[in-house]
Amino acid sequence: MDKLSKKCVLYEMSPLESPESGCFIKVAGTKDSNNEPYLFGRTMFENEIIEDDAPLLLSFLKKCFTGQCEQEYLLDEIDVPFVYQKMFTLLFKNEKGTYCFLRKIVELSGLPDYEIKHIINMMFFGITEDMPICKCRFYSIIALIGIAQNGECASVEELKKYKNNLPIPKLQDIIDKYLISPDDKISDANVSSSDSVMSSKQTIMFESGFERTNDTQKPVSLNSGFIDYNVNENYFESFSSHRIFNIMDLAHFFSSADRITIYIATKKEGSFLFKHDNYVLFSVIRGSRVIRRYSDFLWLQECLIKKYPFRQVPLMPPKCFSVNGHYLSRDSAFLKRRYKGLSRFINAVVRHPIFRDDPLVIAFLTVSTEFSLWRKQTVLSIHDEFQDKIMIEDLGLMFPSNFDEIIMNIKKTIDFQIYNYTKLCLIMDRLLKYQEKSAEDMMLFAFCLNVLADGTKPVLIDGIINDSFSYINKGTFVVSKHFLTAQEFLEEEAKVLSEGILEDLKSQRDNLIAIKNMFDRKDKLDINNIPFLEKRINSNVNKLADLNTRSHLNSLSRDEIEQSIMKDKKLILSQQSRCFSINKCILNELVYFQISQAHIGKLYKDYVQERIKYTELLAENWRSMEIQITSIPFGFV
Q: What molecular function terms (GO) are annotated for this protein (predicted)?
């Protein structure tokens, strides 16, 4: 047996096993390196090979070890969700994309040591420190971290199992550490002494599940949609988008949002004179199919407003239209508009990070029995989400100093935005109706051509002037056929755009109206009597000081005043906590609204793509007609 064969036999018998076995590969070179996982070093057998100057064998062994599994656990961009690609962009934006940095990510993932070593041994074999990052390997490592964080074994088998439903790892701490440069932090000297009660890493968990820490950073301008406020340098609170909202969780949230399909049931229910329409709702993620009435939707909206008055509860379509107190007839066009409005409402509910997990919403989408009967049988206690809720730990946190100014600016501009979006909806609806009318005219034109071709047969006498005149009728039928084809394309395009850009514009309009209604409810419900309580406390404190100077007086009066002071202080604390919770909720809703405005870009992108598609189809139709009508005589020789 030659030297190369002996090396191969030795390799097969060595403890260097495949990644699936979970065995760790020892590192040679230093005495204390045997306990470290393999990375940027060599195994004992590799050192032996290199010392014998057999680099060809080393390359062969690495290929034998990694080649058979590499295609199995490396993920392409088409296999991974958009969140993985966003992670790669964010993590390597300010850092050189090397495997040394990627190892830091694995070590800071919060996994147990044995899981970290297992992932490193599996994914970093034969990797040198200065090698550039391979996106496919990065995606695989991120997927393994997510699998391990979910309590599963990080192995190739699990990677194959979850290939079509890859988990989203929790890496927000890593992103915060490497995305925020030291220049982005403001000196502690800018923080007032009143903030000393806050710990340096105090964290607020917003009700939506998104996270914010009170680390001081440079201000960020959150400009999108109708919101346009420039934050000055004193805005040390800096509610930046990646602080209020966990970027990864948010991207995963939008990608995993449910989609509710709704259509009108063919059969009406009720008595002979009072029949009502039913709506069939199908949930894509839950796979549930339920039947609901308009009154059920209205009940759900009222419950959401009662429970979440300081959130943007979606808008409901009207049950019927009235002019000067006279109700208009409910024709098919009205019923179609109403069911589309209900579709916008329920889909906006399931997209919202709070509403989507509310028990009432879940019951609305899953209870298969008649919902009115379920409401009668179920005892429901619905109250304000901030009722009797005291958040003492959050009161020390400072809010944006110009928060009231921000709200006032939004209130001033929101009516203007609603007005313009309403006009956009009306104009787009008019354009689509004009296109539908054009399609009808195309059909009438084709019909007239057919009638004309049939009526001119006795007029044409073949052979008198030219035999080619017999092709006139045939050419007329060809023109009629292509006009009918154009009519079909125009109708189909109008239908697609009506369900696409028109509904998207109406959704944007409804969102703005929901924001306006949220502010109106805030003005009515966000009231307190803190100034009055403070005055009463000061008065009682003065009385108590006066009583203390008169020691001979009864101590009962002193106890009553002290109890009154304590009671008023508790009321102030409760009202301050409620005000803070409401403002935090309002700010959270505004940021959620702004981030959701990214849908506007997709709106117009889809619109342009549909326009291009049908324009090309129409152009091809007219080119085909041009070729086929060449036989029609067009002049005399």
A: phosphatidylinositol-3-phosphate binding
- Report in angstroms the alpha-carbon separations of 619 from 482, 565, 609, 624: 11, 82, 15, 9
Task: Give residue for tokens 């820490």.
Answer: 213
Report whether 429 contacts 502 (CB < 8 A).
yes
The larger pLDDT score, comparing residue 44 to residue 321, is at 321
Euclidean distance between CA atoms 481 and 557, whole angstroms: 100
Question: Are the CB atoms for 618 and 251 separated by under 8 Å?
Answer: no
Residue 188 structure tokens: 């502690």
Amino acid residing at 546? D
Nearest residue to 294 (alpha-carbon basis) of 280, 277, 309, 275: 277
Kindly report the CATH class assigned to 422-628: mainly alpha
Q: Where are the domains of the chain?
A: 3-79+93-172, 257-385, 422-628
Instruction: Give the model confidence (pLDDT) of 499-536 as tens digits.
Output: 899 999 999 999 999 999 999 998 888 888 888 988 99
For 18-71, the DSSP string reads -GGG-PPPP-BSSGGGTTSPSSSSB-HHHHHHHHTT-HHHHHHHHHHHHHHHHH
pLDDT in tens, 371-406: 888 888 888 878 888 876 666 555 445 566 777 888
Reduced to 3 states, what is the DSSP secondary structure of residue 261?
strand
Half-sphere exposure of 349 (CA within 13 A, CB side): 27
Nearest to 427 by CA among 405, 435, 259: 435
* 461-484: pLDDT as tens digits: 555 555 556 677 778 888 888 999
As given in the structure block, the two tokens for residue 591 are 């940021």
Q: Is the pLDDT score of 456 beyond 60?
A: no
Task: Provide the 8-state DSSP code for 391.
Answer: -
Tokens describing residue 162: 């979850």
- Site of tokens 């005892």: 379
Phi first, then psi: give them for residue 293, nearest 5 degrees: -100, 170
Diameter of the chain measured on Cα atoms: 137
CATH level 3 topology of 257-385: PX Domain (3.30.1520)
Predicted TM-score (pTM) of the model is: 0.59
Is the pLDDT confidence value at 61 over 60? no
For every residue of 546-611, which 3-state class applies, written as one string? HHHCCCCCCHHHHHHHHHHHHHHHHHHHHHHHHHHHHHHHHHHHHHHHHHHCCHHHHHHHHHHHHH
Q: Determine the angle formed by the axes of helices 135-149 and 113-123, rounding to 10 degrees.
A: 160
Amino acid symbol at 146: G
Tell me, what's the pLDDT at 287? 81
Neighbouring C-beta atoms of residue 467, cutoff 10 Å: 10
End-to-end CA distance of the chain: 95
C-alpha neighbours within 13 Å on the C-beta side of residue 123: 31
pLDDT band for position 19 (50/70/90)?
Answer: very low
Which residues contact residue 189 at a Cβ distance below 8 angstroms, ignoring those fewer than 6 apart?
Answer: none
